[in-house]
Amino acid sequence: MFNTIRKKYYLIFILCTLSLVAQEKPEFGTISQSESSFTSYDKDKEATAVYLSEYGHNYFDVRDSYIWLITKYHAKVKILNKDGFKHADIEIPLYHSKKNKEKIVKIKAVTHNNGMSIPVKTAEFYEEEINEKWTQLKFTFPNVQEGVIVEYEYEMQSPFHFNFQGWEFQTDIPKLYSEFYAEIPGNWLYNRSIIGSLKLSVDESRIISSCFKFPGLEQDSDCEALRYAMKDIPAFKDSEKYMLSANNYRSRIEFELSEYKSFYGGTDKYTKTWKAVDREFKTDGDLGVQLKKKNFFSKSVDPGLLTQGDDLTKAKNIYEFVKNHFIWNEEYGVWNDNKVKNAFDQKKGSAAEINISLINLLNAAGLNVNMMLLATRNKGLPKKTHPVMSDFNYLIAKVDIGEKAYLLDATNKYMPFGMLPYHSLNYYGRVMDFDNDSYWFDIVPEKSNAIMLRAQMTIDASEKKLTGVFDLINTGYKKVAQDEVLSTTKEDSYIERLEEEISDDFHIMSHEKKLKYSDEKKLTERFNFEMENLFQEDNIYLNPFVLKFFDNNPFTASERTYPIDFGYPMRYQYVLNVKIPDGYNVKSIPENKNFSLPDNGGVLKLNVSDNNSGALNLFFTFDLNSAHYNNGYYEGLKQLFSEAVKSQSQSLIVFEKI
Amino acid sequence: MRLSFFLFFFAITHIAIAQKYSFSKIEPSFLKNSDAVVRLDESTVLVKSSDFMEVTSKRVVTVLNESGSKHVNAKVFYDNETSIKDLEAIILDANGKEIEKFKEKDFIDQTATGEGTLYSDSRVKYLRYTPTKYPYTVVLTEKHTTSDTAFMPRWFFMDGYRLSVEKSEFNLNLPSTIKYRYKENNLADYNVIRSEIESGVNYTAVNLKALESEDFDPEFIEFAPNVQFALEDFHLKGVEGHATSWKEFGGWIYNSLLKGRGELNASTIQKVQTLVRGIEDPKEKIKIVYQFVQDNTRYISVQMGIGGWEPISAIEVDRVKYGDCKGLTNYTMALLKAVGIESYYTIVSAGPNMRSLDYDFPSLQGNHAFLNVPLVDEEIWLECTSQVVPANFSGTFTDNRYVLKVGPDGGEMVKSRQYTSEQSKQMTTANIIIGESEINAQLKIKSTGIQYNQKYGLSNDSKEDVEKYYKRHWDYINDVHILNHDIVNDKDNIETIENIDIKTSGYLSKAGDRLLFAPNMLNRNEYVPKRDKERNRDIVINRGYLDEDEFIIEIPNGYEIESSLKPVKLKNDFGEFEVNVEQLSESTLHFKRRLLMKPGKFSKTSYNDYRDFRKTISRVDASKIVLIKI
């Protein structure tokens, strides 16, 4: 039985074998002529240090009757300049549970400087406890100067077979060659994924027969030997504004344990297919159990909450209730030990606990609700090819009412029904439907997210003063942000801050919320203001953008590597009516502008006109109609922002004295 | 009967305890300008011997809002010499009723290694608590023992802004055989009572109302009530010491922590002697040795036990070629000695706030070491942790404050270098060519003194970072392109000279036939202090500077000046400001600006004058010239 299964997947491995030539792993301590004469990296002049070579080797070994996962690592790094000195400081994280721990069993580290080799002494490796789960081994190399090569090699022994580390090909400095080699006995089966756009130069898989012997068993296991390598790996730069998680782009290989066949018979399945995952969720698992606390929740709330009104009303009331009941402790907590009852009583918990409570209550109210797993924006997108449970770090509720589906996350008090917090706006998630199969579901962010200003102004030429009133209207995500500001700031400091932001000459005389013009997704505030010290000689020079949306173009780099992702579409709009002061003519007004991005991706419009009844009207709109833009839009977006900034800062209306 | 009495009594006390810290018992006036109220902050230090003390504390804080949580301060630092004996936190609701309890094991235990430190044995246990409602109260009780009696606490009766205090109490208990010194700071302005008790001294403060921070405040430590203590005989990480003066304290550092750590290998001595062979000028020698240190070492900090206070030996630094401030300073001192130059290990409280070591109160103070080299006619200062700072440059990290020079004759308090406003100078000259839509400018910036401090780093920065720096510097110019940036870091004269070419299409405003632009395109002072409310404290300006700007501005063909800037000339206690635009020809303007900002401490009543001064500068700097088509 055991044998037949093994053969089956070996066959698959053989089929996908692709053989190229790998570089031979050098002996520790040997430096080639080309390595020592290497002084600068032509492909990246800004590089402060470069990996000359890097090798990883993972395999299983029996030591003292235990099976250990062994990781061997060997790297040589050339320090190119002083800014690269930090690459001589090394940290190796080590995981531990209450009983077991990962251990460095061998380590060597040497600085090569002009033919001299200066080792790190044993006492100069420090082990530091970070928290309950992690310690780290830290050290730095001696004699680090520009041009030295630092070399280190270690062997780590781990009792955690699920911790089969993948391989990071790409880091913040370039690598000339990086190779990962693994020998995995057929008893362990891992899902593997290659992430990023760089190509492997070696991608090799073969079978080594009888490579692993477990004491006491006659049968030796065969191993799959994997070799992956890349050459000339560029540094990973992740400093771009408005980008999704760097994890979506950084080149690496990930492994996830999917199956373990015990040497004594029996198989532990970890993850393999969504069907298996679904089954597991329904039968056991922390999450499944926590989701079945309907009774506790129906007893713990006012029964009216679960029964009054139509389905949509019930859903909204429950969402409001959960939002206000809980304080979020800022943790995501999907795979932690969730205790929803306890969290409910304490009125605080992780996002998972809060949203599981929400699901339980919606369920208790008889609504069609399911849990949706997703990854937050900073985590990276979950792989769609096969289930990788560690890709998910967050959960929310999906409730279907009539034809409409609503995604709910009750961690943020200011979030209206049906809108997800920004950190959840990460394209899609997996809905764990407990009656049927699980399925992928897209996250569509709220479309209307605007900051709009409607202003009326009058100029008092004799006082060189501007007076007026403006309404500030925030919608969607902008409204959520504004709610947060208003409820955490006292009114006087809010006004003070606003005045400081605009100009020292700007004074807000009154401020009120206009509830009549506000709703769940919209907030209108009215301000009366005055502005002194107008630029006035014989003529009056007025920049009509007394209030600005932003001062700077967020896009300054000449090139863009990654797609642009704002999270949601947005609009900035300014509508102004300014009276022509008595005794003055309109001498000039700003030129009209009208720019747009292809496929209705975005628009910028500026229009100023005389309304022929003693006033000028200004209309400005800057719309970004999409949440995501591919790189091809970069130039266009950059220009659009540039025009938006120019409109706000350089527009002038000139009134001429009659 | 008896039983019921007991029960009744028990019930009463229980309620009394429960209500003791209810929110409603706080005087309403304590809530004003306050994010939290310290109900009780009580600490007793029991010194049993010069190498053993026990600290018992209780701190009860009612947190009024989110920003008040930082005042809970539920954390305890420890290391090999300090062990925590007791640690517990109880959370009370607004009524003073217990809602949660945290034992020592519930506190998060993590390393207290700071940024830039490779390893240290210092650790911290702290409470992570997510409040569900405000107000809430935390009752923290803590007890620890330590052999490090050099760390006698400095007791603050109030430890931050926006924090009222109902009661703060400090007790020092010690046998009469143990001698101690103390210094009271700012107690007279607050309600603090000192009473001698049999076994020591007690200080109690009640009813301190919250203070608000103000821009250009003196440092909090300078006006807040506090008492410093120090034992005459103390222990630090197993090393014993005795000091009643800075002279003695410095002597202790020299004899116990430095002496014997300056040896070097013969080969290194020979190497450095070869480097200076034939050079007579000591200043030149210092530069060469300093350069040698900069070229060969880097800053790495490892702090373990006495290693937090004692430098690693020069031989060891020579071997690994790294060290922390103490190790690198000691190493440089040893190298200088090898070439016949005496220098002094100097302790400083480093940081931009210019905090002096306490002149009148010798005790374990400061957080950094650097080197003082006295020559016949001048003093040289060396910052040994930097690979880029020129010899004898003192930046904002160590300038103008009392520092402790340490040598075989003991310690000596001296003032580190101060740059005058005139020495901290930036001179900008530029040619600006205005086109109808685009502006091109070539400029040259020369920076010295404290202004050099902001610039020398640019000489090692990537092109990208330099661009970022200038885009932020000129954030009022849209769409500014840095076409070229050259910087010369002249380490001999300690000045940077930059040549920069820029262009922008985002600076001119066009209105029909008119073009408007502010002639001060390259060096604006935009900051205006907050509008006055009621100013409570004096204004402190730590450092002055001088900016001089001269721009030749070419206006486009076919335009003439419709209106220009009127000359401005201001002079007051805060500084001097002068702007003048002169027309050199039909198409050329000469813009001249001079801004001198003086350091100093100014009366709180002059706040509005200061604000007006800064406001005028900001307005004039943004003032525009109008050009009109001919």
UniProtKB/TrEMBL annotation, chain A:
Keywords: Signal. It comes from the Bacteria. Residues 1-22 form the signal peptide. The keyword Signal applies. This is Uncharacterized protein.
UniProtKB/TrEMBL annotation, chain B:
It holds the Pfam family DUF3857. Residues 53-187 form the DUF3857 domain. InterPro entries: DUF3857, Papain-like_cys_pep_sf, Transglutaminase-like. This is Transglutaminase-like superfamily protein. SUPFAM superfamilies: Cysteine proteinases. It comes from Maribacter stanieri. Residues 272-351 form the Transglutaminase-like domain.
